[in-house]
Amino acid sequence: MSRVTKPVEERRQEIIDTAQRLFKANGFDKTQVADISKAMNTAQGLVYHYFKSKTDILYAVIDAMAAEQSLKTSKILSQSDGSALEKMTLLFNTRPDFEDLDTLVSSLKSDRAVLEYCSNKMTASAMPVLLSLIESGNEDGSWTCEYPRETAVFILQGLSGLVELIYSSTKDDSRVKTFTNFIFRILDSGASPK
Question: Structurally, what CATH architecture does the domain formed by 1-51 represent?
Answer without folding.
Answer: Orthogonal Bundle (1.10)
